[in-house]
């Protein structure tokens, strides 16, 4: 059976002999390198695994003092070549690719010659599993990403990770790395965290990482360096997994098969021998390779890794103007978060203004407090902190914006207030300064209509919390020019955000869809559906949070305001819920400790036509399908892929749904509601 992947970029395992002081014979150093720079990381397909297999054979034949595996600059290996997964013809081929990886990696684990992984850079998935098979591991403090992210894609760590990791660092930490982190927007480990967990034996500085790794390895071989690891506590194993399963049930409700298979494999790892455990990994991998969730996960991964880096419709970046100073109108929480982000990423002066000095001082104080916290937690050095302190300032006098190149407002969400702000600022700022608004729903075109230079106004919609959510909706008004837009995209890239170009339409993308979604749920409540039933209705999708928890996060008052904006624009599809207004006016939390607040429930005035969970769910999905089709017809974004990218990055919708349109396609909702699919068959689903 051939496992050849015709499009595989083969990562070669390059072997060389290295003389290390203090050893009587050379060490064998295997360097993984696919021939490209760090922007195209090393991955393993059949060709790469075969190359590594051959290098290990050659290394062992040379009778080295030890064998070490490292990567090209900045990259160790980021795992399997997932682009080859859709090319697997059948379950047997899936089993074979799992077995091949296990067989090759196990040679390092079972070697009588000491084996080391010198993890010099990003190590994810199969790359980290390769390192786990080695007897010892050094880790660079400059490694950018460390993770076992497979569950986020709809897979499991399939080359030994579920068996090796819990027996190295214990079941609580392994469950976090293998299941919890992937389901938290694919959270990465920092090198220090990985070392503290026990994944690495020693953490070394990046400047001379290879030299120090070789010295450390030589010390281990000579017996001068003793590596001790704490004994793994197996008494708590069953309890941890029981709690983890309960948590998955509460959060995912069975919607992510990969997470449950990973739990089963972690359970196997407690007592099973390694061969039994890895055989179970092979079977689980083969089961998942042909699942719809994996196809959606691969589609979502491609969006985040490729499309997000090449925004559709963005103008020529050569038109962007330099930004040497940023002004922020407002000093509230959102404005303060923006100030810290701009200062950290752009490394230019940032000045906040507000109506009085106490508000300005509070805003600047928030920034300083966050900097202090970062230093105290070891996430920022004192030199960087001192620089940021000097970059962020505040004033009640807007004349401080006179030399700013980029001014963004984060004031009260009222069109007249924002128009007044820009009318005042236009007389102060220089002619080429970009005027950006963080509005979540108001018209950019209307906001700029009365300005002398409306072409320099652009929407710059962040999502809260600003430091966490990576989406930036960049909104082009009817008169926004290319230079302004190009500058906005350039700034978004400097801020390390994923920018999506959006037409100036009510509530743009994420807020429009979430408002339609929540509006449908609340319409069911208004009709008489109990809050508990409406809240559970979407559980089969495995969304990051239930509707009422999402509403509480957004804020009922904000949701009611955005809903009102959309009702004015589209009264036939966006209703106004008086019950939502009652909740907003009450100021009470809707959910307390995952339970519906009984006091809030008493506020509701409802009808006598309750819906079932299935009816609520189908109404919500139908509404999403209809709204997405209308948005695409209106040209709010270029393609359905941009809708999905926005929902993944701005609303945290999971990879296993592919955002939203693949799920609507595979459940038949798209065709039933709109008459056609959003994506070609096979784009994010099994072909056919």
Can you put this structure into words, describing what you see?
- The strands form four sheets. The protein has an eight-stranded mixed beta sheet with strand order 12-11-10-13-14-15-16-17, sandwiched between helices.
- It has 688 residues and is α/β, with parallel strands linked by helices.
- The mean pLDDT is 94.
- It is built from 28 helices and 19 strands.
- The protein is globular and about 80 Å long.
- The chain folds into three domains: 12-290, 2-enoyl-CoA Hydratase, Chain A, domain 1 (Alpha-Beta Complex), CATH 3.90.226; 320-503, 3-Layer(aba) Sandwich (Rossmann fold), CATH 3.40.50.720; 510-635, Orthogonal Bundle (N-(1-d-carboxylethyl)-l-norvaline Dehydrogenase, domain 2).
- Helix 13 (333-346) crosses helix 14 (357-376).
List the helices and strands and how they pair.
Layout: E1 12-18, E2 27-33, H1 46-61, E3 67-71, E4 75-77, H2 91-109, E5 115-119, E6 122-124, H3 126-133, E7 136-140, E8 146-147, H4 150-153, H5 161-169, H6 171-180, H7 191-197, E9 202-204, H8 209-222, H9 237-252, H10 257-268, H11 274-289, H12 292-305, E10 326-329, H13 333-346, E11 350-353, H14 357-376, H15 382-391, E12 392-395, E13 406-409, H16 415-426, E14 434-437, H17 444-448, E15 457-461, E16 471-476, H18 482-494, E17 498-503, H19 510-527, H20 531-536, H21 547-554, H22 556-569, H23 578-586, E18 591-592, E19 595-596, H24 598-603, H25 613-634, H26 640-651, H27 661-666, H28 669-674
Parallel strand pairs: 2-3, 3-5, 4-6, 5-7, 6-8, 7-9, 10-11, 10-13, 11-12, 13-14, 14-15, 16-17
Antiparallel strand pairs: 1-2, 15-16, 18-19
Helix pairs in contact: 1-2, 2-3, 2-11, 5-6, 6-10, 9-10, 10-11, 13-14, 14-15, 19-22, 19-25, 21-22, 22-23
């Amino acid at each position: 059976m051939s496992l050849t992947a015709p499009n595989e970029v083969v990562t070669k395992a390059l072997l060389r002999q290295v003389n290390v002081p203090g050893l009587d014979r050379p060490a064998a150093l295997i360097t993984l390198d696919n021939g490209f720079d760090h922007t195209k990381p090393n991955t393993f397909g059949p060709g790469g695994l075969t190359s590594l297999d051959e290098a290990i054979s050659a290394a062992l034949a040379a009778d080295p003092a030890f064998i070490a595996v490292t990567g090209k600059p900045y990259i160790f290996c980021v795992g399997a070549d997932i682009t080859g997964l859709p090319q697997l013809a059948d379950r047997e081929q899936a089993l074979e690719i799992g077995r091949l990886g296990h067989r090759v990696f196990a040679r390092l684990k079972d070697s009588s010659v000491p084996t080391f992984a010198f993890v010099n850079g990003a190590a994810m998935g199969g790359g980290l599993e390769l390192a786990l098979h080695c007897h010892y591991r050094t880790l660079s403090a400059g490694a950018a990403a460390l993770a076992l992210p497979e569950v986020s894609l709809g897979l499991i760590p399939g080359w030994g990770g579920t068996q090796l990791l819990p027996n190295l660092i214990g079941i609580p930490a392994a469950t976090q790395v293998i299941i919890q982190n992937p389901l938290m927007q694919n959270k990465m480990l920092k090198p220090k965290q990985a070392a503290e967990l026990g994944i690495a034996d020693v953490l070394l500085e990046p400047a001379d990482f290879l030299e120090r790794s070789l010295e450390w390895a030589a010390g281990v071989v000579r017996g001068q360096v003793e590596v001790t690891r704490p004994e793994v506590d197996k008494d708590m194993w069953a309890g941890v997994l029981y709690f983890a399963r309960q948590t998955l049930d509460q959060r995912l409700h069975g919607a992510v098969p990969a997470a449950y298979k990973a739990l089963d494999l972690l359970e196997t790892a407690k007592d099973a021998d390694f061969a039994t455990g890895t055989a179970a990994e092979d079977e689980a991998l083969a089961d998942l390779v042909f699942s719809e969730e994996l196809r959606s996960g691969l589609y979502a991964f491609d969006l985040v890794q490729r499309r997000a880096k090449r925004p559709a419709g963005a103008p020529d970046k050569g038109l962007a103007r330099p930004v040497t100073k940023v002004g922020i109108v407002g000093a509230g929480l959102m404005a303060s978060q923006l100030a810290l982000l701009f200062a950290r990423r752009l490394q230019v002066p940032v000045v906040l203004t507000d109506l009085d000095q106490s508000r300005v001082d509070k805003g600047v104080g928030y920034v300083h407090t966050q900097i202090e916290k970062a230093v105290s937690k070891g996430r920022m050095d004192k030199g960087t902190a001192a620089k940021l302190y000097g970059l962020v300032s505040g004033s009640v006098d807007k004349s401080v914006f006179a030399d700013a190149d980029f001014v963004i407002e984060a004031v009260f969400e009222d069109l007249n207030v924002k128009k007044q702000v820009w009318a005042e600022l236009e007389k102060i700022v220089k002619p080429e300064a970009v005027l950006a608004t963080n509005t979540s729903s108001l018209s950019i075109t209307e906001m700029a209509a009365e300005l002398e230079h409306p072409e320099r106004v652009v929407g710059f919609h962040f999502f809260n919390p600003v430091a966490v959510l990576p989406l930036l909706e960049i909104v082009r008004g009817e008169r926004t020019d290319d230079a302004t837009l190009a500058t906005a995209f350039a700034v978004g890239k400097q801020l390390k955000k994923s920018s999506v170009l959006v037409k100036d339409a009510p509530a743009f993308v994420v807020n429009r869809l979430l408002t339609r979604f929540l509006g449908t749920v609340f319409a069911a409540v208004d009709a008489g559906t109990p809050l508990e039933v409406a809240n559970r209705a979407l559980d089969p999708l495995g969304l990051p949070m239930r509707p009422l928890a999402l509403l509480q996060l957004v804020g009922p008052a904000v949701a009611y305001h955005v809903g009102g904006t959309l009702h004015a624009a589209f009264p036939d599809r966006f209703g106004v819920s008086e019950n939502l207004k009652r909740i907003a006016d009450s100021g009470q939390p809707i959910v307390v400790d995952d339970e519906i607040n009984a006091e809030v429930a008493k506020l509701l005035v409802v009808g006598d036509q309750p819906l079932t969970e299935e009816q609520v769910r189908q109404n919500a999905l139908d509404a999403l399908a209809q709204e997405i089709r209308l948005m695409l017809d209106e040209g709010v974004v270029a393609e359905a892929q941009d809708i999905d990218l926005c929902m993944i990055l701005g609303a945290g919708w999971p990879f296993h749904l592919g955002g939203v349109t693949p799920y609507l396609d595979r459940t038949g909702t798209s065709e039933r509601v709109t008459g056609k699919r959003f994506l070609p068959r096979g784009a994010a689903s099994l072909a056919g």
